[in-house]
Amino acid sequence: MKKRLLMLLVILGSAYNSFSQDSMIALEVCSCLYGSPGIDFEAGRNFEKCILRQLELDVNIPNKEAYVIRFLNENVDELICETTNDVDEVSVRDLEPMFKKAIGMGYYGVFKYMDENGRYKNKINLNHVEMVNGEKETVLDYLYNIFENEDLLEEYDADKIASLIFIVRRLGGKRANELK
After folding, report:
1. Residue 164: what are its φ and ψ, rounded to 5°?
2. Angstrom distance (rounded) from CA 76 to CA 163
């Protein structure tokens, strides 16, 4: 069903020229994210496989992480995901960078996989800065904003958010005020 929806969106996007190439990349990658729900290791592995398929690479290619890292880092500015009605999520905003959207959707497995895999540490750009309400915000700032806001935190599992803060730091994530 999701593949048919994606195909329909691709056809409509091509026919009406309403999507830019960047929008199509974002749509495809966000679809990978939406198709990889969960908080476990396997959800992250599924996300990685989906990215490799989008790149038309064999999922068993040697050094596959290098291809995923390069793709995600080269397209970090374009990877903005919309809120979807197909998934339960607690989104801070309707349009969010992909890694922030993963948090809003409770798809922590993406981070857990990157952390446990080891080959992603300090290589994925989790320090992409987004301007939010006039303030610079990274993925780590996003997590701290949730953790420090009682109303927002009620929608999440506080222990999982605290764990994600630790994981994102271990992956090389920083707060905007820590960046040079």
Report:
1. -65, -40
2. 24
Backbone angles phi, psi at 46, to 5 degrees: -65, -40
Angle at 85 between CA 83 and CA 90, to 5 degrees: 55
Rounded distance, CA 111 to CA 104, Å?
A: 13
Grade residue 13 by pLDDT with cuts at 50, 70 and 90: very low
State pTM to two decimals: 0.79
Q: Tens of pLDDT along 117-164?
A: 888 989 999 999 999 889 999 999 999 999 999 988 888 889 999 999
d(CA 120, CA 110): 11
Q: Which residues of 112-145 are buried (b: 16+ CB within 10 A; e: fewer)?
A: bbbbeeeebeebbbbbbebebeeeebbbbbbbbe
The size of the chain, in residues, is: 180
| Band (26; pLDDT cuts 50, 70, 90) | confident
Kindly list the domain boundaries of the chain, sorted by start residue. Answer: 2-83+91-178
